[in-house]
């Protein structure tokens, strides 16, 4: 039986939470092995112009009269950068905890898993005043620094301006795994601009969109007005009268985001705050593992 979301989220110690969630399943956020020219054989593939001739399999050629390359598995560690939207909309509350609470716990769990696999991890909190940076490292003490920075990352203001992050992700020449956690609340395409910048560096990108049950279903109990957390604007609502139109527009908006992510080659997953996080992660990681086979 899966623990209720509120039960898991009640674990305030991020280190304990991460171990509780992750130790039950160790499938990995990256494959932890890439095809290369190591010692352990993986599979054959047809020769392509430009392939290293040293890896031709002459026995296969003798049997089939065709050229084949022997691919093998090479163990590798990577750098995993966590980018967390720390704008004020991440203070949205559903069932007693906020999107930022959810983001902290999600990153703690995945950061623990990456660290356990030997990957370097880093944290980038995007605030209105700038980017809070914890550079990627893999030493034994770094995971505790990671937890500490997550715990102290507080949402406020609007989304980060491009000038604050423009050069941060150009500091590495090797491919990285970038995990973004956001509610995708944007007013003028600022999150889309960030994704466009990141895609230009050809990193692998995973985007988790966090949303509350109350906003997905337009269920705010007896409340008749809502306040925009970033602008302070108040909107009167009559949920019974507008729910149908709201849900239709929400469906269109989410479909547009999925299409945008597909076109940019970004892995995307919508996470509901009322769904058990451990099950959501397990489903995502299992899907990711199948895609890598």
TrEMBL record:
Transmembrane segments: none annotated. Residues 43-243 form the DUF58 domain. It comes from the Bacteria. InterPro entries: DUF58, vWFA_dom_sf. SUPFAM superfamilies: vWA-like. PANTHER family: BLL2464 PROTEIN, DUF58 DOMAIN-CONTAINING PROTEIN. This is DUF58 domain-containing protein. It comes from Chitinophaga costaii.
